[in-house]
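Hi Y.,

Following your request, here is the sequence exactly as I used it, all 244 residues.
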Amino acid sequence: MRKAWQIALNLADGPKVFHCEVLQRRGTRNMRLRVRGNEQLLLTCPPGLSLKSQQSFIHKQTEWIAACLEKAADAQTLVDYLQSNGRLASYEGSVAITIRGGSPRSRMNFDKPAQTLHFHMDERETVWERDFKYLLRRYAAAVLPARVQYWLGHYPLVKRPARISVRNQSSRWGSCSAKGTVSLNWRLVLLPQHLADYVILHELAHMREMNHSTRFWNHLRELDPLTDQHEQELSKIGGGIIIL
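Below is the corresponding structure, written out as C-alpha cells. Let me know if you'd prefer a different format.
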C-alpha cells in the first residue's frame, strides 16, 4: 500500500518541505528511507506503522538527508554516465555505444555486425539529456521484453508473464502484479548486463512466489545461483543509476 504526505525538515540552510511517499510492504521489518531528487523521499516500512512513528524516523534522519542532497548536487547526469560507461544491456548481451553530436535531430542506429549502438545527437547539446531519455526508452522497450523471452527459453518451467511492460518507474527496478504483468524500469539497460538479468530473473521468480519469503529467495537462487552477490552489487551501484 502506498500513501503520501508532506514533511518539513530543518536543514542547515533553512527549513525545506519534502513530498514523502510511503510504501507499506509485507515482510518488511525495518524502516528504510531513500532520497529521490531534490524534494522527494521514499519510506519503506511495515504495514500498520503509525504516521507519528514514520515522521519521527524521518526527522532523526535529517543530517543524513542533507548529506544525500549535497551529494546529489554533484551527481553525474545521464549524458555523463553514457559518455563514461560506453555500454548498454541488450537482448543478446551488452552492446557498445558511440555518441556523436552535430546531427539535425537526435536518432540512433544499431550496427549488428559490430554489436554497437550509434547515437547521432542534436547539434544543440542543451537537449541531449531529454533526447537520450527518449531514445533509451525506445531502445529499452524493444530489448527488455526480448531479454525476458531469452530467459524464459532457458527456464521453460517458469510461468510465463501475461504481459511485459517497460515503464518509467522512479524507485523500483521492476515489479510483478498478481495478474502476471511484469513491469521493468527502462533504466535497466544502463546497468551491467548481469545485473539487468538479475532484476529480470527476480521478477520472473515472483511469477511463482508473490512475496519475499524464504521460498521466493530459494526459487530465485535456483534461477540465479549468484543471487546474494548480485543483490549486494545492485544495492551498491543501483542507487546512482535509478535516479538518472
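Residues 128-154 form the longest helix (27 residues).

Thanks again,
Q.
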